Amino acid sequence: MISGSLVALATPMDSRGGLDWQALERLVDFHLEQGTDGIVAVGTTGESATLDMAEHKEAIRRVVDQVAGRIPVIAGTGANSTREAVELTEAARSVGADACLLVTPYYNKPTQEGLYQHFRFIADAVAVPQILYNVPGRTACDMLPETVERLADISNIIGIKEATGDLQRARELIDRVADRMAVYSGDDPTAVELILMGGKGNVSVTANVAPKAMHELCKAALEGNADLARQMNESLMPLHKAMFIESNPIPVKWALHEMGMMADSLRLPLTSLSPRCHETVRAALRECGIL
């Protein structure tokens, strides 16, 4: 089972908005060296919404090839078009991704039955382990626990990233489906508590800049060392908060630029971190021992 700190990897871009493959290599090496337990390539933090199909597939392929089986690679392959999601998921399977992460369809607002049929269709179409991804704050689409429970009976749907930050929801999911699928946090501040309830890990934005610390935090929580895990989480709280001072991945890409890992470049409609936020993020990086 995939578990631990799973970094929601930022996608490096050059000053013109093109993908920076050399910076991507450096970033993957950084995570391999620092103990990250798994890499989520081209998810929300990876700006999947503004990569074209060819770029999306190529980024996944390069990460899979570079990691070379040393840790799991989970490919972000969700879309609000079921056919597009199938195409991306098949492409990820064909290059050797260990699993795929599929966000709930955004903007078109399907019913719960539509969500069930969407994810069932993709699971039937592509023989690869699949992880559901529920983040209603970004998608305007909330997949309810009873729908997740129905999907848990499909053999290659192996988990869900629950990114509401609602621990009551997390408890209900774990009670309903933990015997059949893994439940992962998608919310850094509350991830420790979700893991201590029985979750299997955290798909983390903070891990982009503090991979070793997030690995150790998740390890402590998975081992049931609640006091240590909570203490570590409290020390990282300034960073958790700073990474969402503006829309993700704006702050994390600026932080990685400050660390010398990549250019501070995003694709429109996202823009660089507002100058008024610079010192807040910089102070969090200092407080957590990164700068």
Automatic annotation (TrEMBL):
Pfam family for this entry, one: DHDPS
Q: Which UniProt keywords apply?
A: Amino-acid biosynthesis, Cytoplasm, Diaminopimelate biosynthesis, Lyase, Lysine biosynthesis, Schiff base
Which EC class, in a word? Answer: lyase
| Catalysed reaction, written as an equation | L-aspartate 4-semialdehyde + pyruvate = (2S,4S)-4-hydroxy-2,3,4,5-tetrahydrodipicolinate + H2O + H(+)
Q: Does the keyword Secreted apply?
A: no
Signal peptide span:
none
Q: Does the keyword Lyase apply?
A: yes
User: PANTHER family in the record, alphabetically?
Assistant: 4-HYDROXY-2-OXOGLUTARATE ALDOLASE, MITOCHONDRIAL (PTHR12128:SF66), DIHYDRODIPICOLINATE SYNTHASE (PTHR12128)
What task does this protein carry out?
Answer: Catalyzes the condensation of (S)-aspartate-beta-semialdehyde [(S)-ASA] and pyruvate to 4-hydroxy-tetrahydrodipicolinate (HTPA).
Q: How does it assemble?
A: Homotetramer; dimer of dimers.
The protein's name is 4-hydroxy-tetrahydrodipicolinate synthase
